[in-house]
Design goal:
Isoleucyl-tRNA Synthetase, Domain 1; six-stranded antiparallel beta sheet; 22 helices; about 40% helix
Length: about 650
């Protein structure tokens, strides 16, 4: 079986995650899912880099030990990956015992070989980036990567002989033109670092204690270059008693990352591997930045944002993780930098998902239901109009795979969209409604089969992107996904099977309304913690304010989970003689069957909102304690629905 090893950089626990930090992993996940559907045995690695002075200082400020500090942040990151449907095979933490032992063995091996020596470091140091710079590199005393002021630093340190590998690295770049992509990154590395000359690299610190101790010199801590970078091989068992995964998957097929750490992965990391006599990764890919207002989207930028929502948790809850994944992959910084705005998200969801894919899916199923009693008809004789759609759909898998093999996910999505656009045009060309009126059943049967066949291929190829929605769309079309893209055939569509439909999968968004709502959310989230009121501070209201809120009891008639959401339940409730639909984010706390016939308290006069294409008419009251335990507010005794709560 073909093997594929894919990594993202291990993330430094900054405490707040945003779309920029999610992009690399969503892109990697899409590629990993694609490779699995091509029949590869995939190993997809991500994780966290948890050592360093910044972690130590932040933990101290929070009154926690460094391990306690990172544990909570790592839990949040794992929750984000779950929210974004990330299918990583392993999550490595640099605080794990097996990694620390392997790093100590690596450090010792390089020291004994003569590639590490002790000296004194003197120069500039950027605390946020944890990077050393020479005076020449730190122009105007600023970090070349982040632009912040850098500190003067002088301390005893162990150094890795990076300069020793300069000529060998230059030759490797010249002999392997596909090693670093996009190709313009090669010029950046050659002209800015390799050709001007490499300095030996400080790989230990003595000014902090949170890290892996140098095994033969306990006052030194192994610095990030030998700690974090080596995770790609320690995660596979390198320098352990079981190197089976290392033997099976190394060298890595792709190291995927943002451009600011390309230097570390294309120069420092290969030099370390050369020193260890370990093969180099096959490919290093450095994408651009997701920009907000012309600047890189970072933690500080996301805190200060004034109108654009960059919180992937918020966006996934509002629009579904599939929509957020699609927007990131379609409009993200695959090559160069790419701007992000609320308008970008709304326009892409409407144009690609609602108007194009969603429209084709709903129209095709609706016509099969209307004209053939919900059963996919068979294909008959084809004319030139039919063949124009059939041929472009037949060519799609090969064109799509060519783009995906280049890691070009936006290009692959463009290929799918061409077929979707052609299929929607085909409907207008063939006018199924007129064929039905004319009782041209044979031709109508062919048209609807062709539409369903083209739609099926598009949906299957979208499964690495639209993880949840693709499954639902195929089920509604009465089809199963394929386990290998190489066996994907256009005429693999099964006729004679029933189709069905439920709620709209990708409802069209009201652009003006959504922009206002997102700006409101962004403004609320941009308030800095120090300006917020303390939790125990009570804001008093007048009785007139309370009187505006109308609370009534409601009986739950029916309850089910909302498609594409792990948090939302859809409840049908009765308020006296009136029935309402209410969406509530309590799926993690209640099973739908447990809520049926339960009496709840409803905010009766709350303005309706649309969540996942469903209008929610009110809000169910719940109580939550400081530990996060949640309970629905319910009357103590039986009382009729519609009773006023006061």
């Amino acid at each position: 079986m073909k093997k594929f090893y894919l990594t993202t950089p291990i993330y430094f626990p900054s405490g707040k995650w945003h779309l920029g930090s999610a992009y690399t992993t969503v892109l990697a996940d899409c590629i990993a899912r694609y490779k699995r559907l091509k029949g590869f045995k995939v190993f997809f690695l991500t994780g966290t880099d948890e050592h360093g002075s910044k972690i130590e200082n932040n933990a101290k400020s929070a009154g926690l030990s460094p391990k306690e500090f990172v544990d909570k942040i790592v839990a949040d990151l794992k929750n984000l990956w779950k929210t974004m449907d990330i299918s990583n095979d392993k999550f490595i933490r640099t605080t794990e015992d097996y990694h620390q032992k392997a790093v100590q063995k690596i450090f010792t091996k390089l020291y004994e070989k003569g590639d590490i020596y002790k000296s004194t470091y003197e120069g500039r140091y950027c605390v946020p980036c944890e990077s050393f710079w020479t005076e020449t590199q730190a122009k105007d005393s600023k970090c070349p990567d982040c632009g912040r002021l850098v500190e003067k630093a002088k301390e005893e340190s162990y150094f890795f002989k990076l300069s020793k590998y300069q000529d060998r690295l230059i030759k490797y770049f010249e002999d392997n033109p596909e090693f670093l992509l996009p190709k313009f990154r090669v010029n950046e590395m050659m002209n800015n670092f390799l050709k001007p000359g490499l300095n030996d690299l400080a790989v230990s610190r003595t000014s902090f204690s949170w890290g892996i101790k140098v095994p033969f010199d306990n006052k030194h801590i192994v610095y990030v270059w030998l700690d974090a970078l080596t995770n790609y091989i320690t995660a596979l068992g390198y320098q352990s008693t079981d190197q089976k995964l290392f033997d099976e998957f190394w060298p890595a097929d792709v190291h995927l990352m943002a451009k600011e750490i390309v230097r570390f992965h294309s120069i420092i990391w290969p030099a370390i591997l050369m020193a260890l006599d370990v093969p180099l990764p096959k490919k290093v890919y450095g994408h651009g930045w997701l920009l907000m207002g012309g600047d890189k989207l970072s933690k500080s930028k996301s805190d200060a944002v004034k109108k654009d929502v960059v919180d992937p948790f918020v966006l996934s809850e509002r629009y579904g993780s599939d929509a957020v994944r699609y927007v990131l992959l379609k409009d993200g910084p695959f090559l160069g930098d790419a701007p992000y705005t609320n308008e970008t998200l709304i326009n892409t969801v409407n144009t690609d998902l609602a108007n194009s894919l969603g429209n084709l899916h709903s129209r095709t199923i609706a016509m099969i239901k209307q004209y053939f009693k919900g059963v996919i008809p068979k294909q008959n004789a084809l004319d030139e109009t039919d063949l124009s759609l059939i041929n472009i759909a037949k060519e799609l898998p090969a064109k799509y795979s060519a783009k995906m093999d280049e890691l070009n996910v936006p290009g692959a999505l463009d290929e799918i969209l061409r077929v979707i656009f052609a299929a929607n045009k085909y409907i207008d060309q063939t006018t199924p409604w007129i064929l039905f009126k004319e009782k041209n059943t044979e031709k109508l049967s062919t048209v609807l089969y062709n539409l369903a066949a083209a739609l099926r291929v598009c949906i299957i190829l979208l499964t690495p992107v639209l993880v949840k929605s693709s499954k639902i769309m195929l089920e509604q079309l009465g089809q199963e996904t394929v386990k290998n893209f190489d066996k994907l055939e256009l005429l693999g569509l099964k006729s004679g099977v029933s189709v069905f439909s439920r709620d709209i999968i990708f409802p069209r968004l009201n652009a003006d309304k959504e922009k206002k709502e997102l700006e409101k959310i962004a403004m609320e989230s941009s308030v800095k913690p120090e300006t917020k009121k303390e939790e125990n501070t009570v804001t008093l209201i007048d009785i007139e304010d309370f009187a505006k809120v109308k609370l009534k009891t409601a009986k739950v008639l029916n309850c089910e989970k909302v498609e594409n959401s792990d948090k939302l339940l859809k409840l049908k409730v009765k308020v006296k003689d009136e029935e309402r639909t209410v969406i509530s984010g309590i799926a993690k706390y209640y099973e739908p069957k447990d809520l049926i016939d339960k009496t709840v308290v409803l905010v009766y006069n709350l303005k309706p909102v649309v969540l996942r294409g469903i209008e929610s008419q009110g809000m169910i009251l719940c109580a939550e304690d400081e530990k996060g335990n949640l309970s629905i507010v319910s009357p103590e005794k039986n009382i009729s629905s519609g009773s006023v709560v006061r």
